[in-house]
Design brief:
Structural class: mainly alpha
Number of strands: 0
Strand content: under 5%
Number of domains: 1
Order of helices and strands: HHH
Length: about 120
């Protein structure tokens, strides 16, 4: 009788450990999806701001046009991304590459305003 009880206890512990392991994998998966979504949003917003500022610094003074709203800058970013393929020897760009590229473009454009 005791042997049967210990076997039941062992199988319950094993089932509990499997359930905990599955819950951990699910939690990690959800966290990865949320983090990836946040990184995409940050990269998109940063790129949009960079386009908006570059437009304000270079296009507005030279062509005497209005500044563009952020949604227009976002649309321009989508259009350029669609029309101009990016060839990288290392493979597909990561979101951190996109953020670094956006910050580098912003910095270069800002420094360029000092020479206008």
């Amino acid at each position: 009788m005791q042997n049967s009880t210990s076997e039941n206890s062992t199988s319950e512990n094993s089932t509990s450990e499997n359930s905990t392991s599955e819950n951990n994998h699910l939690t990690i998966g959800i966290a990865a999806i949320v983090l990836a979504t946040i990184m995409v949003l940050v990269a998109v917003l940063l790129r949009t701001y960079v386009i908006s500022y570059i437009w304000s610094w270079y296009i507005v003074p030279f062509f005497h046009v209005q500044q563009i709203p952020l949604i227009t800058a976002f649309g321009m970013s989508l259009l350029v991304s669609y029309l101009v393929p990016v060839a990288r020897s290392e493979g597909n760009p990561t979101y951190s590459d996109m953020i670094i590229d956006s910050l580098g473009t912003f910095l270069a454009a800002y420094i360029g305003t000092f020479f206008m």
